[in-house]
Amino acid sequence: MPSVHTVLKNSLQFPWINLLNKQTSELTVQMASIKDLDVGEKFSSKLEEIRTKLLSQAMGEMLNEATVEFCQAHKQYMKSVLDTCSKKCWDDETMFETIQVYTEELKRQNSVMRERSGERPEILGSIQDKESHKELLIQKIEQLKQEQAKNRELIHSQNKANKDRLKNLNKIKEIFQERLSLEIRKIQGEKLQFIFRNINHKNPQSAYTFLLRITEDGVYQIVSCDPPLAQMDHLERRLQETNNLSAFLSNVRKEFVALNNITKTA
């Protein structure tokens, strides 16, 4: 904003001020040519009065114009200051709101950290429990693997034993078919039917049979016998103890022959 001194200085540059000074100078020259002292003094006094009046009017107008210009400059300056203050105030409010947001967020994070710190022992305990459970599961899996390996070995050995038994049965089948008139049939359900003939001389084709199966454990088991033999349970136990199927079949045939003789005698 311009100062009052600057405004007054600019106002003194008006042309009419120069004109007033010029006219005053001319009157002063004319006054100097007057010889009568009284007239000269009156004229000087009047001239000074006119000069003072004109100067007062000029100064009044100049001051009015300077005041108006000063007021306008002051208004512009105050408007600029007000705009600057308003912007500064808005910036400060924005910064204060941002600080408040950061403060609240910091409080929230601190609260979360405290909650997590309180939960940490529970989390650690849960992790330890899970680790213990994991170790138990690993141990159980290892046990199952070992048991599975043993079962595979057992199954393999049983399959091998069954294959060996089947080979023996095939050999026995050929021998007994020729010598003992024995027929062996495979029945549904993994069972074998043994059929003896030529026991009853009156009816050589009369069939004396029994069903045999091999359990999952590789044990021989008699399922049925027709006609029933009193010694079949004893013969079955002997077969399970010795695994000698040839001897078992011979003994069964003998029992069928004995049963036929008893029936014939009766």
Describe this entry's structure for a reader.
This protein has 266 residues and is α+β, with helices and mostly antiparallel strands. It has helices at residues 4-11, 15-32, 37-179, 232-242, 245-265, and strands at 182-187, 191-196, 208-214, 220-226. Among the domains are: 139-180; 181-263, Copper Amine Oxidase, Chain A, domain 1 (2-Layer Sandwich). It is 76% helix and 10% strand. The protein has a four-stranded antiparallel β-sheet with strand order 1-2-3-4, with helices on one face. β1 (182-187) and β2 (191-196) form a beta hairpin. α2 runs antiparallel to α3 (37-179) and α4 runs antiparallel to α5 (245-265). The longest helix is centred in the middle third of the chain and has 143 residues, at 37-179. The protein starts with a helix and ends with a helix.
CATH class of the domain at 181-263: Alpha Beta
Mean pLDDT: 79
> Rg to the nearest angstrom?
70 Å
Structural class assignment:
alpha+beta
Features of this protein?
266 residues; alpha+beta; Copper Amine Oxidase, Chain A, domain 1
Concise synopsis of the structure shown:
It is found in: Chromosome, Centromere; Nucleus; Chromosome, Centromere, Kinetochore. The protein has 266 residues and is an alpha+beta fold.
Write the layout of secondary structure elements.
Elements: H1 4-11, H2 15-32, H3 37-179, E1 182-187, E2 191-196, E3 208-214, E4 220-226, H4 232-242, H5 245-265
Antiparallel strand pairs: 1-2, 2-3, 3-4
